[in-house]
Structure to design on (170 residues):
């Protein structure tokens, strides 16, 4: 194989290896074996976003979660677009929409060009129906992830209310 073709195939393999490495770091997928990760990779949607592109808006019905392969995203809330979080390579967001059909509680906007992996609710439901054991693993880790974030948020609110009660209207 000449260098040209070797480089093309090598970069595809490197990209696949990078996605594998990224997925096992995402808490929702941490307990999955190699075969299960391969199944997940086949149903993920990869999408490129431009700078300052809206991924989703507050109030829209959520469709799934997003994993940042490369780039930066701001999570914004309210009419003043208060910044709730700034996310980067390897971070994920929107996972609650895998469990409910409620409107998004915040907006997500790219800070730079981004490559995202998207895991949508219909694919999760299909996994649950066709491979219940895998579906249970994902749902358990999803619930764990959401509970960890809730505990962290409660802790931050508690610290904020202790240090500045007037900030919370007390």
């Amino acid at each position: 194989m000449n260098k040209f073709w070797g480089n093309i195939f090598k970069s595809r393999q490197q990209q696949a290896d990078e996605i594998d490495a990224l997925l096992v770091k995402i808490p929702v997928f941490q307990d999955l074996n190699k075969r299960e990760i391969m199944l997940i990779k086949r149903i993920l949607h990869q999408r490129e976003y431009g700078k300052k592109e809206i991924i989703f808006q507050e109030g829209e019905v959520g469709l799934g979660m997003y994993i940042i392969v490369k780039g930066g995203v701001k999570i914004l809330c309210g009419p003043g677009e208060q910044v709730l979080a700034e996310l980067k390579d390897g971070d994920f967001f929107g996972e609650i929409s895998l469990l409910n059909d409620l409107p998004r509680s915040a907006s997500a906007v790219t800070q730079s060009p981004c490559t995202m992996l998207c895991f949508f609710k219909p694919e999760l439901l299909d996994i649950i129906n066709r491979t219940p054991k895998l579906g249970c693993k994902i749902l358990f880790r999803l619930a764990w992830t959401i509970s960890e974030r809730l505990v962290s948020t409660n802790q931050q609110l508690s610290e904020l209310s202790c240090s500045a009660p007037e900030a919370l209207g007390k």
Observations:
- The domain at 3-153 is CATH 2.60.120.10 (Jelly Rolls).
- The chain is about 45% helix and 25% strand.
- The helical segments are 3-25, 34-43, 121-130, 132-163.
- The chain has a mean pLDDT of 89.
